Amino acid sequence: MTPRPRKSLAQYWLKREDILQKIVNAAELKATDSVLEIGPGTGNLTRYLLPQVAGLLAVELDEKLVDFLQKKYGHHPHFWLLKSDILTLDLRAELAKNSLFPPPNKVVANIPYHITSPLLAYLVGSPARPWSWPFERVVLLVQKEVAQRLTAKPGGKTFGALSVRMQYIAHCTWVCDVPASAFYPRPQVDSAVICLTPRMPDPVVLIPRRFEQWVQQGFSQRRKMLRNNLPVAQEILAPILTQLGYPETVRAEAISAPDWVRLCNSLSDYSSDSLSEQLPNEPQVNHPEVETEG
């Protein structure tokens, strides 16, 4: 018997075959690929992935689903199932225990929405804490609002701190819309499939933690001009904005991700004495959940 979805674990089974196929197509799978699937549930996506790859590592937290998946796919030579919380899983350590399994080079998953923010950090890192695992492609089914922010262009209402941070370390593209009716049970929000392709940053941030801090401060009050959000003297900020082609009255959302890097790098060129009275020390940046970020 197929296990029923558990609301406490934010389980929603994707039932639309056409969308499942679009997810797989977005992964651009090759026979030599190895895939990490997070939260496989009852295996609706697993059955599309498994025949096409050299290895499929499925990580599932729900014990009942682990038993169900093991019975369903455990016989397959390319299938490896781990009962674990993905956010606490030491992927390198687990792979060291199974040296014959090909290390995953791609991620394909329908993820629980309440772990979106930490999961993005786990899979692709952040400017201040880059994740060195060589994932070539990350295809995720996420809340539509999050997808809009990840793929947003400068100047729009959805372009924010999350957009800048993620676009610094990955190309973010929209794959397809996923209506609430595509799931069982039906969630209260619509969703979308996105594809993240990690990349080498260009330009490179000089002080990553300070960059994250400034970006977060820049978007802290969206209706205000940037000069009123960043604790930097106008005589320092204005010439940098002019050099980048922006007016002194610019708001944070009008500045592209690469120009945010250039802006912060230029601010970093000033001596610590010049900014010491205006900038706080560099505490660990605590990112807000992406679902509520302004």
TrEMBL record:
Residues reported to bind S-adenosyl-L-methionine: L14, G39, E60, D85, N110
SUPFAM superfamilies, per database record: S-adenosyl-L-methionine-dependent methyltransferases
Keywords, comma-separated and alphabetical: Cytoplasm, Methyltransferase, RNA-binding, rRNA processing, S-adenosyl-L-methionine, Transferase
Domain Ribosomal RNA adenine methylase transferase N-terminal: from-to ranges: 19-200
EC number: 2.1.1.182
Subcellular location: Cytoplasm
Reactions catalysed according to its record: adenosine(1518)/adenosine(1519) in 16S rRNA + 4 S-adenosyl-L-methionine = N(6)-dimethyladenosine(1518)/N(6)-dimethyladenosine(1519) in 16S rRNA + 4 S-adenosyl-L-homocysteine + 4 H(+)
HAMAP family found in the cross-reference section: 16SrRNA_methyltr_A
Family: Belongs to the class I-like SAM-binding methyltransferase superfamily. rRNA adenine N(6)-methyltransferase family. RsmA subfamily.
Classification via PANTHER family: DIMETHYLADENOSINE TRANSFERASE, DIMETHYLADENOSINE TRANSFERASE-RELATED
Chain's role: Specifically dimethylates two adjacent adenosines (A1518 and A1519) in the loop of a conserved hairpin near the 3'-end of 16S rRNA in the 30S particle. May play a critical role in biogenesis of 30S subunits.
Protein name: Ribosomal RNA small subunit methyltransferase A
Organism expressing this protein natively: Gloeomargarita lithophora Alchichica-D10
